[in-house]
């Protein structure tokens, strides 16, 4: 690539010089833009020790069908939003044990559609420090975009058993100044082994739960492993089973006693 790069740049510069000499503005602009493209390729080809960014946010529902199809093929785990695709690409850009500091939305940590993406993150990065800011974090983001700031490194091996990350939960603080004043307040700090997230169905990054609760998930089977889960009180067919009181024939209503206190319920005969 370096050989081709040098040759392309030389030809572009020659092209640019001729455009300037002939006062051809269109060719001059073309050459300058193409040179920028070469430098952009350099950016994408390199690996980095540190990446700091605040990626753009754009849900896939706002993309054209063509773009959505392209993104889904390139980033099947993270295509649902631009910022999650950025996270995945950043990991690819990092050198081994490289570091990233990033500000993003929080929804990738919890919602179902990012379950596989969370599993990928748990296998790929160490979360060194995460500050869960919530809403009212930044003036630019307003009061409707819950945000997080976190630092992670690219993992070197599969052994995460002994690694502990530092998490701060500032979601319940309403004022921006409160959040700033308590960014590293130990009162809001949890020390968490990110491996514990694997034991919770869907791998949600629920860093605020207590160690006792995490141990319950870690050391015990899930309910679905020991008993079949069934739906509770539901009709399963509202059109068939639900009626307004005036729709029911009076002769079909009876009052049945159900305990010694003579309480009862109305029900169909």
Automatic annotation (TrEMBL):
Pfam families according to UniProt: Eco57I (PF07669)
Gene3D superfamilies: Vaccinia Virus protein VP39
Keyword Transferase: yes
Any one Gene Ontology BP term: methylation
EC id: 2.1.1.72
Residue ranges constituting the Type II methyltransferase M.TaqI-like domain according to the UniProt record: 14-135
Molecular-function GO terms, alphabetical: nucleic acid binding; site-specific DNA-methyltransferase (adenine-specific) activity
Top-level EC class as recorded in UniProt: transferase
Swiss-Prot/TrEMBL catalytic activity: a 2'-deoxyadenosine in DNA + S-adenosyl-L-methionine = an N(6)-methyl-2'-deoxyadenosine in DNA + S-adenosyl-L-homocysteine + H(+)
Record keywords: Methyltransferase, S-adenosyl-L-methionine, Transferase
Official protein name in the record: site-specific DNA-methyltransferase (adenine-specific)
